[in-house]
Design goal:
The protein has 135 residues and is mainly alpha-helical. It has one domain. 53% of the residues lie in helices and 0% in strands. It is built from 5 helices and no strands. The protein has helices at 6-13, 15-22, 31-51, 63-78, 84-102.
Length: 135
Amino acid sequence: MPYITLQDLTRRFGESEILALSDDGAGAVDQEEIDRAIEDAGGEIDGYVAGGGYVVPLDPVPKIVASYACDIARYRLYDDAATEQVTKRYEDAIRFLRMVAKGEVLLGIGTEDGGETAGSVQFQTGTRVMPGGGF
């Protein structure tokens, strides 16, 4: 299940930009090229979030993940000609995904072990701080 569609990319970046990045030579969007960029973005996202304990593909897809999926797919469509802004947005997406993988950012959906990743408290038992438990 892809995280985004051609419609998401067009809504976010405009029809003219998406057409310019994926023109099939006849003035139409090359759907195969779009699909490849979307799949690549999804694979990249899955690689990071699976490391954070999430079941992939994510379902439901958090809005922030869909937003970053658009940035990653756009970067892939630019190939070697990415502008500074496009590259920065891609790097921001990867930075976010790395934080998810490390557990520094929670997506608010369940993880592999069925636990919640936001809004719940977890306690860990450990050793006593003071020997004998007294003051």
